[in-house]
Amino acid sequence: xxxxxxxxxxxxxxxxxxxxxxxxxxxxxxxxxxxxxxxxxxxxxxxxxxxxxxxxxxxxxxxxxxxxxxxxxxxxxxxxxxxxxxxxxxxxxxxxxxxxxxxxxxxxxxxxxxxxxxxxxxxxxxxxxxxxxxxxxxxxxxxxxxxxxxxxxxxxxxxxxxxxxxxxxxxxxxxxxxxxxxxxxxxxxxxxxxxxxxxxxxxxxxxxxxxxxxxxxxxxxxxxxxxxxxxxxxxxxxxxxxxxxxxxxxxxxxxxxxxxxxxxxxxxxxxxxxxxxxxxxxxx
Amino acid sequence: xxxxxxxxxxxxxxxxxxxxxxxxxxxxxxxxxxxxxxxxxxxxxxxxxxxxxxxxxxxxxxxxxxxxxxxxxxxxxxxxxxxxxxxxxxxxxxxxxxxxxxxxxxxxxxxxxxxxxxxxxxxxxxxxxxxxxxxxxxxxxxxxxxxxxxxxxxxxxxxxxxxxxxxxxxxxxxxxxxxxxxxxxxxxxxxxxxxxxxxxxxxxxxxxxxxxxxxxxxxxxxxxxxxxxxxxxxxxxxxxxxxxxxxxxxxxxxxxxxxxxxxxxxxxxxxxxxxxxxxxxxxx
Lengths: 284, 284
What we know:
The structure is a homodimer.
Chain A: E1 5-13, E2 16-25, E3 30-38, E4 49-55, H1 63-68, H2 72-78, E5 81-84, H3 125-140, E6 143-152, H4 154-165, E7 172-176, H5 186-195, H6 208-214, E8 221-226, H7 232-236, H8 238-248, E9 252-257, H9 264-282
Helix pairs in contact in A: 6-8
């Protein structure tokens, strides 16, 4: 392991290892902590297991998914590593929301590369998640460059955008309750206007619905959305994704789940389907 | 549902329902919040499903197990309800640790019935868990009086003591990393000296190792203990349980798990075995 990585926690789990790793991240110019789950198959001499990158939602850290999703049982069985980054740059030098709100700044990086001050130096979460983090993970752990991406809410937006912006980089993508059209909903408008500035034409490069129009790769999208999700109408609007996918001829499986809300109880219920979706594409 | 129960949260999960319920508890003379998971089978007209009572460890509330154990997937499949109470009485009128420590008072009721002031009024968690809570649950939810009990750490102690003190009340019992001999370890000595007073002879009625000597029912004990648990030698001492069980001729399956620590990553790894252990006894 490289000198600039520090293991801050380690737990045995389902025969594999869950690690929390701190490192100096160049893209976001601060220390970052990510979690990695290595399945038992990764302990075999010479093994290189494929990786699902999981992007969490607003207010989360690297910890929420690993502790609450119930994903590690099947990941162990499938021989799939999971990497969960933090949801923003953090630290005393990293500017947050000026009003201390939870939906912007710390815990709310929106997986974009900010262009506006004072955010442009640190808020480069797309670059971090798509390039620096996989490079660090692949250099230091027994994982391969076969990658999938998935996420929840803000992280569902992140997963869709990472896949749509980077053809060939991910073998599969899926999302739980993603913000599919951030340019047109309050969470996204707040974040994009500050990270990317007032020119809305620049926002299209970070909006899954807009990116579908331009996509050159037709990577199938799997999306689960709870019908009892309190953010459904105002922030999530899965119908916009359906319309955009239909217009573009892009394959989308959108599953509306009656009774389910926005919580990890919802994610836990359907996470196995997303792991199998990734594993099938990764040939894990 | 009775007028004095309030649903404070509800989430669909694995086709069933997770509820957080607040009620006025007479035994502990304060408002208490417990969680209940009702599997899909409980929604069938006229159904009465069996219940696993889960007792959590120090600092926990009703939430930790439900969010972190990954138990609800198999509970749904087995048709098993799970009830998770809080770990102590709480509130501004409930005395806590005089020094604000985390191992006594709020979040640390130790599942005993206190006899010493100022704790005797509220700290009656054994009575609450064994009698009042099941009565409330069985009167208000579609569950039966077939009960199992399990727990972790302080709650593993609680599970063993609840089963050993109340022959016939539970169909099965199991524990993760239980405090098996609280009379002889720092956590237990601190708690028992304050809740039960200085006469150590009274402590025996709340100590699994001592209770094994007096047991009239030979309910098999299932215990998982991580070998990398940082509390193993000082607080948990599973060998004391092994010795006591052997001396009493009491059936014990003690599984030492190499590499596993005290966390919910450990619990998640082996919880399915405990659910199946309970379900087999409950004929769930």
